[in-house]
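COMPLEX REQUEST
Ligand: pyridoxal-5'-phosphate
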Amino acid sequence: MKRYELRCIACGHVSPFSLRRIFCERCGDLLEVRVEASEVFNREKLLGRVNSMWRYVELLPDFRRPVTMGEGMTRLVRCERLADALGVRELYVKLEGMNPTGSFKDRGISVGVTVALEAGARRVICASTGNTSASLAAYAARAGIECVVLIPKGRIASGKLFQARLFGATICEVSGSFDDALRIVLGRAEEMGAYVLNSVNPWRLEGQKTTAFEIWEQLDGSLGINVVVPVGNAGNISAIWKGFEELRDYGLTDEVPRMIGVQSSGAAPLARMFAKGADSPEWVESPQTVASAIRIGRPINWKRAVRTVRSSGGSIYSVDDHEILEAMRLMATTEGIAAEPAGAAPIALLKSGVESGLLPRDETYVCIATGHHLKDPDPAHVSWNVPVPFEQYLERVTGRS
Ligand SMILES: Cc1ncc(COP(=O)(O)O)c(C=O)c1O
Ligand SMILES: [Zn+2]
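STATUS: Structure written out below.
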């Protein structure tokens, strides 16, 4: 048996329960799902369960048969060569690109679309930097409901736009940034009768918290680690932390990781807030970065993210675009592991952080590679490796002309 509560992240008020509710009835801030389960999984119970995030069913909203494509249980790959190159003791990369549509969003969208059906919705909507639209389009297709996505015109990666089109979503282009698109979605969804599936929706985060459960299982319960997560709208880092907190609250672990966020310096309101020691962020009106997935100037979940890093003893930092592209190259060429630019940002932070002494070398790091590299196959990202005529190569290796 499970009991759910919708609690405000700002004033703590518990709003009357409704699957359609997103904002606190008292102060209008965002809500968090609190789940009280009479029994929970443990390592033994998990043996032989379904190989997807739905194995953690005791702490997931299984109001009805889930809309699932086997999301989650992505590989956690130990990277010795990359750890050596970065100069850290131990490094793992969690390959979220292995999810059905190639990003971690599938976790939250699987739960979100399941809840949307339970709430009676026949139309779902989101604003997106790309991956949410790809994921929502696919899961809505599987559920047989309509999907509308709002994207910043000309600013999303080609692979993601291709996916949203292929899965049959109605794609509306908005001039301006992701933040403008999200404002429109929040303002218009109700009159459209559409269920909002951005990460303001508390049920999205319930899916995404399973990343923490998997890391716990994959590392045999050793959670004295640092988890490094790219931060855009700041939902994912908060969701992963919620998962670790639940493991602790249910007595499944004593230790919890330090959560470290990373933004790109052209879209870094939270990193700047932490650098200045300020209490609230200054928004970035025109965010710029090669990592289009985290090109966000007003992270709507900023309060959750601040609480996450403060309670876990971490922080949020920034890296430059050239460091992100270099991290993509380094991951790919030392380990054969790749990610879209946002997904490589944690490695970029490890590199600069260890070099500058900001991050200790003698620790274990888990970097969340949030999206698949083929999402954003921009030739500019591989400008360091240009194809050559075979004869030219032969001359080089044989020394003959
Ligand atoms: C690949 C990738 N990484 C990171 C993020 C940032 O996640 P969040 O907005 O939850 O902070 C996104 C969000 O679009 C993403 O697509
Ligand atoms: Zn409130």
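REMARKS: The chain is about 40% helix and 15% strand. The mean pLDDT is 97.
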